[in-house]
Amino acid sequence: MPGHQLRARARVLGLRPNSVDYRLARVTELTGLDPGAPRDAAMAGSCQAN
Predict the structure, then answer these.
(1) What is the rounded distance in angstroms from the CA atom of residue 37 to the CA atom of residue 33?
(2) 6-50: per-residue pLDDT in tens?
(3) Rounded CA gap, 14 and 18, in Å?
(4) Which residue, 5, 11, 39, 40, could crosslink 33 as a Cys pair with Cβ 3.0–4.6 Å?
């Protein structure tokens, strides 16, 4: 994810950019999905806990 998008998403979530980067890396580590790929992002989004 480009730096400006990462900073914008972090701001919306109220997190630091490093926190967003870490969480995205954990999603990949735990699921094997790449949140940067549209198909994988859709799959990860459909698996969110309520």
Answers:
(1) 8
(2) 899 899 999 999 999 999 899 899 989 998 889 988 888 887 665
(3) 12
(4) 40
Neighbour-count burial of 20, counting CB atoms closer than 10 A to its CB (0-12 exposed, 13-18 middle, 19+ buried): buried
Pick the closest to residue 22 from 8, 33, 4, 6 (CA basis).
6
Angle 28-13-45 (CA atoms, 0-180°, nearest 5)? 40
Locus of tokens 């701001």: 11
Listed residue (1, 38, 43, 40) closest to 22, CA to CA: 1
Cα 21 from Cα 6, distance rounded (Å):
8
Task: Report the distance separating Cα 35 and Cα 42, nearest Å.
Answer: 8
Q: Two tokens at 19?
A: 């926190």
